[in-house]
C-alpha cells in the first residue's frame, strides 16, 4: 500500500465512490438492506474518502452531533490501517468543529478497534440491521 490519503468528500460530486464502497461492504458483504444503509443524514453529513493513489478504498461520515458512522474499507485493503486513518480524520474534524464528544454505533466484532482509538462502550449489545452492535463514546480532552 503505497499512497493512502484521506480527504473530505462531497456527497454529490463523490457520490459514485461513496456508494460503491458502502454498497460493497454493507449491502453485499453484510446483507444490510439499501433502505437501512441510505438515509437522509447523508446529504448533510461530512463524508471522508480514503484513497490509494487515485482509487477510493474506504469511507466514513461525521454528523453534526458528533456521531461517526458508515466506516467502511473495501475487503482487499482491510488490516492496513485504512479504517484507523478514516476514523482519526473524522475525530480530528469533529474536534476542529468543537464537538467535544464523538459517538458511534460499532459492530461488536470491531469494538476493540474503536477502543484502541479512545472509544468506550456505553451500552449493552443490541441488534441493528441484524448485526450485533454497541454504542461507544469518545471524549476529547
From TrEMBL:
Domain (N-acetyltransferase): residue spans on this chain: 4-141
Source organism, top-level taxon: Bacteria
UniProt feature coiled coil, ranges: none
UniProt cross-references to InterPro entries, sorted A to Z: Acyl_CoA_acyltransferase, Bact_Acetyltransf, GNAT_dom
GO molecular function: acyltransferase activity, transferring groups other than amino-acyl groups
Pfam families from the UniProt entry: Acetyltransf_10
Keywords: Acyltransferase, Transferase
Top class in the EC scheme: transferase
EC number: 2.3.1.-
Keyword Manganese: no
Family annotation (Gene3D superfamilies): 3.40.630.30
Keyword presence, Transferase: yes
PANTHER family membership: ACETYLTRANSFERASE, AMINOALKYLPHOSPHONATE N-ACETYLTRANSFERASE-RELATED-RELATED
Name the record gives this protein: GNAT family N-acetyltransferase
Organism: Denitrificimonas caeni
Source lineage: Bacteria, Pseudomonadati, Pseudomonadota, Gammaproteobacteria, Pseudomonadales
